[in-house]
Amino acid sequence: MKLGIGAIVSFVIILLLSCGNSEKKITKEKQKELDSIPRFDSLNWAKEYKFKKVNSVDRNIKKSFLTQFHQDFWVKSNVSGGLLVAQHGEIIFEAYTGSADLSRESPMTADTPLHLASISKVLTAMAILKLAENTKIHLNKEVSAYLTDFPYEKVTIEDLLNHRSGIPNYLDFSDDKKYWDNTKMMSNQDVLNVLVTKKPPILAAPNKKFFYNNTNYVILALIIEKVTGLSYAEAMQIMVFNPLGMKSTFVMDFDRDKDIVSRSYYNNGKDWGYDHLDKTYGDKNIYSTPRDLLKMDVAMYSSKFLPEKLKEKAWQGYSYESKGVKNYGYGMRLMEWSDDSKILYHNGKWHGNNSVYVRDPQSETTIIALGNRLNRNIYTSFKLVGLFGDYPIQFPDSKVTGTKAGKDSLKKLDKEIDSVKQTSPNKKKK
Asked: What is the pTM of this model?
C-alpha cells in the first residue's frame, strides 16, 4: 500500500530529529519527490508471491542435516554469529552462537544486528534501482550528471553498480601518503574530494574490465544523497528498510554508534578496533540480522517492490572477458551455468565480520550467515546451496582451513549433501 504524503512527511521529520539533523528542512518539492516513490510499508511480502508448497518430509530431512552441519562447522569451531536457511519463504533452520559484545557478556540473538560488510552493496544497489524505477536517476547517465565535480569521464551509474568503472580503489589510495593521511578518518565526501583534487590513476577505461572496487559503492551512496536530498542513512530507511519491514537494520553513524553496535573480534577473541575507513558507507557499514535479510530476499520475488524488467537487468552478468561461471550484476555476484541455472550471492568481510548471502531463485532457497568473530568456517555455509540443486560448486580447501581435519570435514560434507539430495522427495532432476 502506498503511504500518503502526510505519513511520509511525518516520518521524515521524526527521522531527521532522531538523527540529530533537526536543522535540515524538507521543502514542498522534496516532499512531493519522496511521495512519488512507492513505499508498500504495510504489505506482507510473504503473501505477495506464490511460493511453492513446502514438503514436510523434505523439510525435516534437510533440517536434520543442517543441525548437524551447524554443530560441526559452527559450534565446534567457536563461530560467533547467526545462520539461517529458508526455502519457499519459510525458515528451515536458524541458530545463534557466541556474543555480540564479549566485554558486556551480551549473547548473540536473532535480534542482534551485525555488520554486513559487503552485503551492504546489495542494499545500496536496491536503493539505486528504486530511484531508477521512478526515473529519479538513469543508469546509463554519467556520474558527472549527478556529482558535477566527478573527474572521470564516461563512467556511468551502471559502471559503478557492476564494478566496471575502472576508477581507483579508495582502500588502496587511503594508505598512500600522497593522497591521504591515514591517521585521520576518511568520509565518503573525503573519498570524492581526493578523486577530484588529486585524481589517482584509473585501473582501466570505463566498461572495459571488471575490478571489484569499494569506491564504486561509496560514490553510489553520494549519488543517493544528492538525488534525494537526504543522508544515505535516511534515504535507505525510507526507500528500503521500512518498506521491507527490516526493523533491526540501520546504517551505522560512526560518531553516534561506535560504542553501542556489536563488536568485531579476531579469532582469539581480541577486540578488533576501528580504523580510518570505518566512516565510509554504501560499500559497507549497514548492520542487520539474518531475519531482516530474509525479509529482503522474500520481497525480491514480488514485482511490486522491483519490476521484473529491472530485476532482469540487475541479476545478469556484465563481465565475460574471462572464462568461468562467476560474474557480477548490480550489487550481486552470480554463478551462471550453460543450462541457464543461476545462483545469486554476495560474501563480505570487514575486520572480524564475515558474511554470506545466497539466493537460489530456482529452488526458492535462501542462505544467510553473519559472524562478528573472524572465522572462515562461516563461508562453508555457501556450500549448503548444494542441498537444494545440482550445482557443481567446489571451493579450494584452503578457503576454509588448510588442516587435514578441515579437508576431511569438507569431503564428509560433500558426501552428506549428496546423500541428503538422494533421500529428498524433491530431488531436482535434469
From this structure: 0.87
